[in-house]
Structures are given as structure tokens and as C-alpha cells.
Amino acid sequence: MATTSIPHRWKYDVFVSFRDYASSSWCLKELVKILECKQIENPKYEVRIIFYDVKPDVVRKQTRSYAEAFRNHEVSNSAEVGKWKEALSMAADLSGFDLQDMTNG
């Protein structure tokens, strides 16, 4: 079982995805920990998704800036890239808020 840094007393976590999110290996590692906590340690743990300045489909399919970021990660973090891509796809499939749609009407 994976050890996570997320306190068990929390009921939920918020994942905010933004245009350059995938360029940060730290952010991607934290997302993996959040989803592991939900799946393995506490299935009732809730994750709230907020998409800011990026469409959920871009996150889900890792296109545009996300594709560019993963090309760069392949050089230095190739062993983790598959896990990060899977985590982003899973996060994008969770219900959440698309702030771009909310601000555009």
C-alpha cells in the first residue's frame, strides 16, 4: 500500500487544474497521492475538481500544453509519466467545475 502525505482526517481534497499544471512534476506527484488516498485508503474520500483556464477534455486527453509538458517529462521522469497521465485522466473524469465556462456565461 502506498504511503501518502494526505492526513486521514480530511474528508475531501481539491484538485485545481490549470494550463501549465502538467509541467510541474510536484503537482503531478501530489495528484497521484490524492487519487491513491481515494482509491486505496478511503473510498469515501472526496476529490473536487476545478478546471481553471483549461478545458477538462485537454486534461483528460493530455493535448495542447499538457502534451508539451509530457514530452518534456519523458526526458527526466519517464518512469512516472504513465502514472501521471492515468491520474490526470481519472481526475478529469470526476465531477467538478469548469471555471472557463462559468466566466464566459
UniProtKB/TrEMBL annotation:
Catalyzed chemical reaction(s): NAD(+) + H2O = ADP-D-ribose + nicotinamide + H(+)
Keywords: Hydrolase, NAD
Enzyme class: hydrolase
PANTHER family: TIR DOMAIN-CONTAINING PROTEIN (PTHR32009:SF39), TMV RESISTANCE PROTEIN N-LIKE (PTHR32009)
Keyword Hydrolase: yes
Span of domain TIR: 1-105
Single Gene Ontology MF annotation: NAD+ nucleosidase activity, cyclic ADP-ribose generating
Keyword Transmembrane helix set for record: no
Listed Gene3D superfamilies: Toll/interleukin-1 receptor homology (TIR) domain (3.40.50.10140)
InterPro entries for the chain: TIR_dom, Toll_tir_struct_dom_sf
One GO term of the biological process aspect: signal transduction
Documented EC number(s): 3.2.2.6
Protein name in UniProt: ADP-ribosyl cyclase/cyclic ADP-ribose hydrolase
